[in-house]
Design brief:
ATP-binding, ATP binding, 7-stranded mixed β-sheet, globular, P-loop_NTPase, alpha/beta, 22% strand, disordered N terminus
Length: 378
């Protein structure tokens, strides 16, 4: 049997609901559950994770959500690792939802394959932040706040290095519950059981195996096969749509492209920011030129904060570099990040997250295009 969720086009199997209920209501409230959701691509990890969030919120009021899927993140743009604090249910699981994260790290690529070490470092830093601020710390106890449960969504790359990454994450996080969603192609699944345990170590996590959702009457998967590129573009478009007032009547990507092309950018002095290329080396003379018409992470340099060396800097949002004027020593940036946060930004992170082609094809404008009316920044 299937259980119809509040979403009009998503059906949650009874076994999925029973699993979510067991995590939310059969476990002790202190400490609350830390649930690691894993499985192959298109198995339904994101759908189950959001359903689990909806199940946990009524009991705990607030739930932490750690998104480690840089290719298909749930609440942010591609290329980001993030942690969110969720305090309300999502009635429709099919709707694209953009949320401001509690903390974010810009990894700068849609797969951990390019730099597994940096990827894991980012995941660990976000988990450590959650553990310190929301799970177990003197600070939390002194404030008399209850620890929050955590849901961890993971990427669908589960073979080769992807498998090794999943194992390392499980060993570091040590969740109370591990939910593995399995598809019919058995060779694409993770191993059964506590596959991450070494030697004679004992596993204290509750293991839950679920099958991917199927609609019995049609005998087909209810989980739509994702057009990854289209979904990534949709999230980037939704993010930069926030640059414009909600009152603007924009119904097509073409209209959005025109609106962004005429939108007043921030003016950023080159002397105020450093540039870091995350996955490549760029000649010193070409550093600023290479930013032209690219998406960058807007970050606070770790050396200006009290963070230890070796940690990726916190990212406050993304920006489009609309132009570079070397003679004036200025960058022109479009971003929905408020000025109060922009004032703290002193580091631009360039990765491989591309501007959707539909936002570059603007008739009458040269891209990258330079604006004459600008807003000062810093």
């Amino acid at each position: 049997m299937e259980k119809e969720s509040p979403s009009p086009h998503i059906f949650i199997p009874d076994l999925w609901s029973e699993a979510a209920d067991s995590i939310a209501f059969d476990s002790c409230t202190s400490p609350p559950p830390i649930t690691f959701v894993c499985g192959a691509k298109n198995s339904g990890k994101s759908t189950f994770s959001r359903h689990l969030l909806n199940t946990l919120v009524p009991r705990y009021k607030k739930v932490a959500y750690l998104d480690t899927d840089v290719g298909q993140p749930e609440f942010t743009t591609p290329g980001c690792l993030s942690i969110h604090i969720i305090d309300e249910q999502t009635p429709d699981l099919t709707i694209l939802s953009m949320k401001t994260p509690e903390r974010c790290i810009f990894f700068g690529d849609t797969s951990s394959k390019r730099d597994p070490k940096a990827y894991l470092s980012g995941v660990y830093r976000l988990y450590d932040y959650y553990h310190t601020e929301y799970y177990q710390s003197n600070k939390l106890r002194s404030s008399e706040k209850s620890p929050l449960p955590l849901v961890i969504n993971t990427p669908g790359w589960v073979k080769g290095i992807g498998y090794e990454i999943i194992v390392e994450m499980l060993r570091y996080i040590q969740p109370t519950h591990v939910v593995q969603i399995r598809i019919s192609a058995e060779k694409k699944n993770l191993p059964t059981g506590a596959f991450w345990i070494e030697g004679n170590q004992k596993e204290h996590a509750t293991l839950i195996n679920l099958n991917a959702a199927f609609q019995v009457s049609f005998n087909r998967s209810l989980l739509i096969q994702k057009d990854s590129r289209r979904l990534r573009d949709a999230r980037i478009i939704a993010y930069f749509r926030q640059c414009l007032p909600r009152s603007f009547s924009i119904t097509t990507n073409k209209e959005l492209a025109h609106a962004l092309a005429s939108h007043t950018p921030y003016e950023v002095p080159l002397s105020k920011v450093k540039v870091s290329h995350l996955h490549c080396t760029v000649s010193r003379n070409e550093i600023f030129h290479s930013l032209n018409a690219t998406i960058v992470g807007l970050a606070v340099d770790r050396r200006t904060s009290q963070e230890s060396d070796g940690h990726a800097p916190w990212c406050v949002g993304l920006g489009i570099i609309r132009g570079v004027d070397m003679l004036k020593g200025l960058l022109y940036v479009i971003t929905p990040v408020p000025l109060s946060l922009l004032d703290k930004v002193d580091l631009l992170l360039q990765g491989y997250i591309e501007i959707p082609t539909c936002l570059l094809q603007v008739r009458g404008c040269v891209s990258p295009y330079m604006a004459t009316n600008v807003m000062p920044f810093n």
